[in-house]
Amino acid sequence: MKTENIGFKNELSFVCALLTGVAESSQVYPRVTAEMLTSRELALIYKGIIELFNKGKAMDYTLLEHEMRALDHELYAEMNGLNYVGDGLLSVVDDVHVTTYADLIVEEYQRNSLRLLAMEISGKCGSRDIPVEQILQLANTKLEEIAGMGVNSTSTRQISEIGQEVVAHHTRLLENGGTSVGYSTGLKGMDNIMGGFMRGEVAIASALTSHGKTALSLHMAVQIALQNIPVYIISLEMSMEQLYGRILMSLSNVSPENLRMHGLTETEIAVAKSLNETTLRELPIYIDYIPSARPEDIRAKVKLARKRKQCDFLILDYINQLDLGNAHGENLATSLGHAMKRIKDLAVEENIPALVIAQMNREIEKRNDNYKHKLSDLRDSGVLEQAADVVYFINRPELQGNGKGDDGESLVGIGTINILKNRNGATGTTKFRYNTHMTRISDY
After folding, report:
1. Number of domain units in the chain
2. CA distance 140 to 298
3. Torsion angle, CA of 344/345/348/351, rounded to 10 degrees?
4. DSSP annotation of 162
5. Does 186 share its domain with 132?
6. Which domain holds residue 4?
7. E-strand spans in 291-409?
8. How far is residue 7 from each of residues 91, 157, 357, measured CA to CA in Å?
9. What is the pLDDT of residues 74-124, one digit of tens each?
10. Which GO cellular component does the record give, naming just one (predicted)?
11. Amino acid 411: pLDDT
């Protein structure tokens, strides 16, 4: 065994405490990973210990050496197996200090990670080809990862603690006269079926082109924000100005043609100014336009928005525009599935609802079933549906030439929302009304 520095001595004492059995792997794993140990030899021993732990086997030197040989035969032979630790085992008396050793190992690993990150950021800052925004996002993501290294999990909680939070939530709901456990969608029919948007859940909204995916989602955003709930909208397609325009039109009689083509009249400018200084100033809606965003960019942005108290409800418009890359040779559907799973993990981790807008395929146009939706109508339906808690489709019958329903009712200005999946609740169909330009939406 080589002459050691203080860091090595900490690692040696840490590993020996586990070898002697006075400390259990569950006290430090998965908080400390093998990659955190600077000694290759001690890291190999620790990997072997974890292999035994994961297989449910008690500490046994013969079994441990077998695991070490299987992991790295050459290094095992070079270090002469467990003989490498020498007299280190004799210094272990109890497990009192094992968590202290673990703290020191994690801290040193974080310091090394920060040094490497500083070098990486410095190198990228020297290149004018890399946008500053991209460097900042990288730094924020990596710093978040480093800060989370070795943090003890807080996911395990006693059931009564969970119960107290649930009861408190329902008590607040009762006191405020609420009728929905989740965040109200602003449409009574939809709330009656699914109970609103639930924290920790991901809903997918889909429709054919120009059928109102974004319009309906923005209506919901405004209604949720009016409940004083911060809404964070990440747009991968529409600019901030376009989204502002849609929200402006949903709250006023500003002409879509004037806003998009001819220019606002003096009266409309006055209306926009008034809304900017009153309703919109108080409305907690935050918009971020991130073209070609990657899943990790979304995560970093949401984490930052949460810290700024700007995101209690997330809208992503839309997932098919994500830059999924192809670093591992995955096909598009697999990459999209991984991205959706990361969004679901983020919603659970931050305890917020997320509304994801997704494309439909065109198969429904080939069927002769009067545009009756199926989950398979969702583009890449399998990978998206698997992670989603709720999936609903939006339809405007008049766009397919259906001016009247089976009962003779006019379908002009009437849309349907077909909730086909609801992991924790009911499914069903509800209706809503909209104006000529689909800028204003209301209950049926």
Report:
1. 2
2. 12
3. -90
4. H
5. no
6. 1-151
7. 313-317, 354-359, 390-395
8. 16, 34, 50
9. 999 999 999 998 877 766 655 557 888 888 999 999 999 999 999 999 999
10. cytosol
11. 82
